[in-house]
Amino acid sequence: MSIHETLEYKDIDGNVYSGELYTPSSKYSGTRPGVLIFPAFRGVTQLEMERAKEIAEECGYVALVADVYGKGIRFTDIPTAVTVIRPLTSDRNGKFKSRLECSLNALKAVPSVDKTKLAAFGFCFGGLCSLDVARHRFDGIRAVISFHGTLSPIEGNSLDFLDGISIQVHHGDLDEHVTKASVDAFHEEMRARNADFVFVSHGKAMHSFTDPNSANIAPSGVGYNEKADKRSWKSALDLFEKVFV
């Protein structure tokens, strides 16, 4: 069993966010590792909440599904979401960074969380969020994972080494939304940063391969792939187990 509650938190400007927090049952004593989950473009959905619940119940970690848009802001279509996402991703060292950090701070503030054992993962837009958590080298982060996420580096940032952070990227080999040029640039960035990274290209998998409802989200170029979904999730859980020792 796990305990689920909606967690409201604020950034430095006083903006209010609403995440979903899952904490493990009382059979786990002491502080526990914390995992931050960044949703895809729609914001917090049942998909991310199910992952958080599993992490809490099966692994004994504290899991927070983060909100980077703001309380009550959720989307059902891509064009509307883009009107919010673009201003954020054009300011990755400013407003976007602040929203990532305040979500991480909200997780750290949970009394049962071990602030030295933290990780983040996300889907699509959430994958970019997770990778930027590593790029900013936030305290306590041991691993980040991207599922069919945007890979673009932060323009103009120095390529500081990412020592002490394990990075795992799961990419669909048929992903039309993340170009080969983006994949190549990501590899170059990780090499330049001396990063401990694993990049997995899942055969026959398209964008959004982890979401069974992906076909209802976009008209083309996306699709669920059960093998890629299960394989990538197992790899993620294996990584958490290794870095949280």
Helix/strand layout:
Layout: E1 2-10, E2 16-24, E3 32-38, H1 46-59, E4 62-65, H2 78-89, H3 95-108, E5 113-123, H4 125-135, E6 141-147, E7 166-172, H5 180-192, E8 196-202, H6 226-243
Parallel strand pairs: 3-4, 3-5, 5-6, 6-7, 7-8
Antiparallel strand pairs: 1-2, 2-4
Describe this structure in a few short sentences.
The chain is an alpha/beta fold and 245 residues long. It contains six helices and eight strands; from the N terminus they run E-E-E-H-E-H-H-E-H-E-E-H-E-H.
Key attributes of the depicted protein:
single chain; about 240 residues; alpha/beta; Rossmann fold; 8-stranded mixed beta sheet; 8 strands; about 35% helix; about 25% strand; globular; FrsA_esterase; hydrolase activity; AB_hydrolase_fold; DLH domain-containing protein
Can you offer a commentary on this structure?
- By secondary structure, the chain is of the alpha/beta class.
- The protein has one domain: Alpha/Beta hydrolase fold, catalytic domain (Rossmann fold, 3-Layer(aba) Sandwich), CATH 3.40.50.
- It has helices at residues 46-59, 78-89, 95-108, 125-135, 180-192, 226-243, and strands at 2-10, 16-24, 32-38, 62-65, 113-123, 141-147, 166-172, 196-202.
- It is globular, with a radius of gyration of 17 Å.
